Amino acid sequence: MLVRHQERVDALVSSVRQIAADLFDVPLRATETTEPFRLGPEPYWVTQEWSNTLMPAPATLLLRIAPENLRRKRRDQQVEAQLSALVQHNVENLRWATLRGLNETFRRFSAQLDVRLADVIAVTRGAINGTIERWHSEAHQVAAERRRLQRLDETFGRYVAALARPPQT
Questions:
Q1: Cα of 161 vs its chain's centroid, Å
Q2: Is the pLDDT of residue 57 over 70?
Q3: Of 48, 46, 16, which is closest to residue 31 (Cα–Cα)?
Q4: Is the dihedral of CA 52, 57, 60, 61 positive or negative?
Q5: What is the distance between the alpha carbons of residues 26 and 30, in angstroms, rounded to a whole number?
Q6: In a 10 Å sphere around its CB, with 0-12 CB exposed, 13-18 middle and 19+ buried, how is residue 39 labelled?
Q7: For residue 159, how many other CB atoms are within 10 A of its CB?
Q8: Predicted TM-score (pTM) of this structure
Q9: Which of 90, 103, 124, 149 is deepest in the core (most CB within 10 A)?
Q10: Which parts of 51-67 fold into alpha helices (H)?
Q11: Any residues with CB less than 8 A from the CB of 71 and at least 6 apart, and which?
């Protein structure tokens, strides 16, 4: 169920990293593998409800001397009540385990997504800052080279002017 979403997140993160690497001319860092999403623990099933009493109820003792049809009817009612309680107990166990598992899975998914997006943002910001620093450095180098070339041009202009003047006698 979440595998499709996880693959989509992986593709988006890879795409953003690739675009940042291409735009800012920085090496592409290897991406880490993500842990697959899994639901929480399996629910457990109860097959028998245990009685907490040490002494049988007086009604149980009276049932021993009651006629067979009354005992059968009472036993059927007890079995039905016990089955109903077991079904309700097991359904609640299933509901709770599913709810807990889904909440845990989505919490982990959200946390991993936040970490990965923060990492991509940090890498992209680092690439942007590196590019800005490189542009500033190159701008200083270009300015220095420009000043050097202007001095050379001025010197060359003086030589040309000196060569263009007639010789003095």
A1: 72
A2: no
A3: 16
A4: positive
A5: 12
A6: middle
A7: 10
A8: 0.52
A9: 124
A10: 58-63
A11: 63, 64
Report CA torsion sign: 131, 133, 137, 143. positive
Contact 105, 40 (CB under 8 A): yes
Q: Residues 70-84: pLDDT tens digits?
A: 889 988 998 899 889
Q: Which DSSP helix (H) or strand (E) runs through 17?
A: helix 3-24
- The DSSP letter of residue 55 is S
Taking the CA atoms of residue 11, residue 16, residue 20 and residue 22 in that order, the dihedral angle to the nearest 10 degrees is 40
Q: Which two tokens stand for residue 77?
A: 């009612």
SS3 62: helix
Rounded distance between C-alpha atoms, residue 128 and residue 138, angstroms: 15
CA proximity to 1, closest of 109, 111, 95:
109
Q: Tens of pLDDT along 106-116?
A: 888 888 888 88
Neighbours of 18 (CB within 10 A): 11
Which amino acid would we find at residue 154? Answer: E
- Tokens, residue 31: 């991406």
Confirm if 6 and 113 have CB atoms less than 8 A apart: no
Q: Which two tokens mark 6?
A: 């996880």
Cα–Cα nearest to 6, from 105, 76, 135, 73:
105
